[in-house]
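[INFO] parsing input record for 3-isopropylmalate dehydrogenase
[DEBUG] input buffer:
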Amino acid sequence: MVSKKIAVLPGDGIGPEVCRQAVKVLQAVAERFGHRFEMRSHLMGACAIDATGDPLPEATLTACREADAVLLGAIGDPKYDNDPSAKVRPEQGLLRLRKSLGLYANIRPVTAYDVLLNHSPLKRERIQGTDMVIFRELTGGIYFGEKGRTADGTGAYDHCTYSRDEILRIAHLAFKAAAGRRQKLTLVDKANVLETSRLWREVVREMAAQYPEVEVDYLFVDNAAMQIILNPTQFDVILTENMFGDIISDEASVIAGSMGLLPSASVGAEVALFEPIHGSYPQAKGKGIANPIAAILSAAMLLEHLELNTEAAMVREAVDEALHNGILTQELSPNAPYSTEEVGSYIAFWIADSNEKQWN
Ligand code: IPM
Ligand code: MN
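[DEBUG] output buffer:
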């Protein structure tokens, strides 16, 4: 029996709906294994701006720091997207949270589930067997460089900088992950044009000697974008900087068949954070059509981080069971869709009911 504090940041749009299902699943795990998960919700994103004027209120940051792990839904609201003059934005909350908690590595696994192969717009024979993990640097690069308008107001800039140390720390995580998987690491960069990319290549090339069992490949991001669609099974671990990782992970989600299936873990110096890779999907808010599986699989990654591996395996098996039995939301099953709530309940009930002997 363990006792853990989980800070929950439901956020905006479909965030609260998918988070509720992940919390329900974590509660089922707690009951099934006799654990205690103290889960409290806190404001972040557009809802926090509405309530406090700040997308990341101090109380939320403090609660995250005091927790054993953080579970996040999604943030963002279209009213900010079309207003270039907005000074306060929901995304600033997320970026500040990542930076404040030192979450420098965002880990995004991409799997082609056999039962969903026909749901991807890509040919099944190309994607079958895809099993890759994207290690996206999360607290540096163009996202966090100096940005602004030129003095005369006619131009704008976003600086991209990286230090050796910023590259080293995430690269070590990626090399270790590759060593424990299929021993292949692909660095995705734009070293034919960008100086920061040349530094990434230099550092990774030097490090490769420390991981002789890992085969290292280097790909320019434009080519990588094509290869991910053309031949995704060639990838094992992809290591890349912040913005390239943002873009190629959305692209890679097409392989799984839906954005609503992809979880992520952000780890670093302090408490780790777990969130779906999808956004707040405001058009779907309140309709009960959002896929909760990305949030539920993020909860599975959270359990693994807390070293509750049997518990995590059970969540994964329950998700597989839902996929196999066609308990799918609208984007994957337009003719016979299940609601967000029904998918979450199916998975939570499966955990509550699962055979004692198999799991103890
Ligand atoms: C993501 C999102 C965020 C990002 C946004 C909401 C700031 O797209 O987590 O991938 O760009 O990192
Ligand atoms: Mn993104």
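[INFO] Residues 15-33 form the longest helix (19 residues).
[INFO] shutting down worker
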